[in-house]
Amino acid sequence: MTSRRSRRFLLGLIRFLALVTVAGGIGVALGMVLSRVSDDKAPAGAVGARTGTAAPPATAAAPTATAPTTATAPSAAPDAQAEVRLSVLDARLFTDDTPSGAREQRARVTVRMRAENAGGESVTLARPILRIGSVRIATDPDAEGLLGSRFAALRAGVAQTVTLRFSLAGEATPKVVRDRRARVLIAGRSVPMRVKLRAPTR
Hints:
The structure is a single chain. By secondary structure, this protein is α+β, with helices and mostly antiparallel strands. It has 2 domains: 2-50; 81-201, Sandwich (Immunoglobulin-like). It is 31% helix and 30% strand. It has 4 helices and 8 strands; from the N terminus they run ααβαββββαβββ. The protein has helices at 2-41, 44-51, 99-104, 172-179, and strands at 84-96, 107-117, 129-132, 135-138, 159-168, 181-186, 189-194, 196-201. The strands form 2 sheets. A 4-stranded mixed sheet has the order 5-2-1-8. Strand 6 (181-186) and strand 7 (189-194) form a beta hairpin.
């Protein structure tokens, strides 16, 4: 009787242990399967969060910097007026000795000037200006529409000599009488000259 009971007890214990072992193996297997399924369905950032390291956010590619291009301006052609050679041949001042002329300090300055175009293209010079200190005086108007106080267009290699006439009044006249010098502004230059005093006009 005792041996039969012991045998039954051992058989029952073995069956129980077998059931426990089988149930444990099935549980482990099911856990692995569920874990793998959950990993497949989880978003990419969740894996890093579960392991404790967050996945770095995606960064947009930085645009490639390109150096600005600067257009090179063509070199400017030399000023044609720079090729004009200027010289003062003679400069004279004539005072006005009439009562009104003496009162208004009127006078006339004549300047014989030569211009030579040493360049390769025609040049037209602006009307010359007489400078006496801070005073600037334009040439007298052309007589009867003809060029008389300015240069005509200078062709390449051509020289001209003209007599420039200027009418003075006020403080400009005594300054020239005292200093006996003045300047002609022409072709972008200031040409100095000595002025000779002549007999007054009546």
